[in-house]
Amino acid sequence: MSGGGRRAGAGAERGGGTSRARGREEQSGSSRKPLIAGNWKMHYNHLEALALVQKLAFALKPRDYAATEVVVLPPFTALRSVQTLVMGDRLDIRYGAQDMSQRDDGAYTGDVSGSMLAKLGCRYVLAGHSERRQYHGESDAVVNAKVKAALKWGLVPIVCVGETQEIRQAGHQVSHCESQVEGALDGLTSEQAAGLVIAYEPIWAIGTGEVAEPQDAQEAAAAIRDRVSAVHGPDAGVNVRILYGGSVKADNIAVMMAQPAIDGALVGGASLDAGEFVRICRYRELAVGA
Ligand code: PGA
Known about the structure:
Blueprint: H1 19-28, E1 35-39, H2 46-59, H3 62-67, E2 69-73, H4 76-88, E3 94-97, H5 114-119, E4 124-127, H6 130-136, H7 140-152, E5 156-161, H8 165-169, H9 173-184, H10 190-194, E6 197-200, H11 214-232, H12 234-239, E7 241-245, H13 253-257, E8 264-267, H14 274-281
Parallel strand pairs: 1-2, 1-8, 2-3, 3-4, 4-5, 5-6, 6-7, 7-8
């Protein structure tokens, strides 16, 4: 069971939602809005970024934004251009960064602070993506410091957790994710934890085309929600949004979104193509298992 996340309640019905999607909110008693975030990683310069955001803006309609929060996470060098486009054209697309420093300012060559991102109108920032953990040695303690710094500057952290193939083969994936969540959220208030986004991304599924079984993703997401509930209180457990990430595409998003503990997706490769990303954002129109 997913603790507070399955508490009965009167969730508000959203336009165009499937009965399963509505069921998720009704069961939760919360108003967790689905969130689809595109993690562009180290792809696209600022001109290419503008072209992609323009294509998304052209395709996405008010009903899409009403049903689902749509977020892009371009490289740092494109953020100012994306800000100018989003503000100038009053787009409903939200944006954020893929990483930030845990420090406010100072002699930290190459780093970018939360205050700089906030000034660029960023709403979100990834914290502890597995590629940061792997290639930049980010520990749970560093991720925790980044989460706290992000909150300090009014950014919403998208905290990434997930197991390696070896950990899954050993059957320790749930305890591994729970411990990463505990580490990343250490010291947060219930209110802070409630406002977070957590992305469950099994490392073996990232960029491999090998997507997790929906019931396995559900199991991990429900365990994460339970843990947040146990440590930070039932309100946090009910309200924290949990995404699935790892080879999400238009042909597998609907079945993931049908899982009651999953509120959205963190999309890598498939977010680089406007048409595919729009189809993912419109998962409600896709048949489950299509
Ligand atoms: P992928 O990446 O969709 O290309 O697997 C997901 C991620 O790393 O966030």
